[in-house]
Amino acid sequence: RVPAVRLDDIDELRKVPLAFLKVDAEGHDSRVLGGAMELIARARPVIFVESPPGSESDSSTAVGVGGRLRRLGYEPFVLDGGRLRRVEQVKGLLNVFYVPSSNRVSGLTL
Q: Of 10-14, 63-67, 103-107, which range is least confident?
């Protein structure tokens, strides 16, 4: 068993601007996001999620994580030929960038 700490409980993360968050938790991505909700709401970073393939009903899969982030106002994108391309479906995708729907990220307009 490995001890876990919620990202929302790390004081140092409250003191720095956060533009990008990478989540690669080997099937526990939804739990990681659950422990970072305050951080995500405050900083609105671009979030890169590397999810293992799994069943649609599993909340740790790309589909479950994607649904959670969409409810927070994020849109899914994939890297395609060196550019981000918006996608409607995340099922079967392993690497997805989630961008706040305001389309403004640290001075970058998509």
A: 103-107
Token readout for 109 is 């307009």
pLDDT at 52: 63
At residue 71, the 3 state secondary structure works out as helix
Which residues, including other chains, have CB under 8 Å from residue 69's CB and lie 6 or more apart?
33, 47, 49, 76, 98
92: region left, alpha or beta (phi > 0 left; psi from -120 to 50 alpha): left
The whole-model pTM stands at 0.80
Which sign does the torsion angle of CA 85, 31, 28, 60 carry? negative
DSSP 32-66: HHHTTHHHHHHH--EEEEE-----TT-TTSHHHHH
In three-state secondary structure terms, 91 is: coil
DSSP 69: H
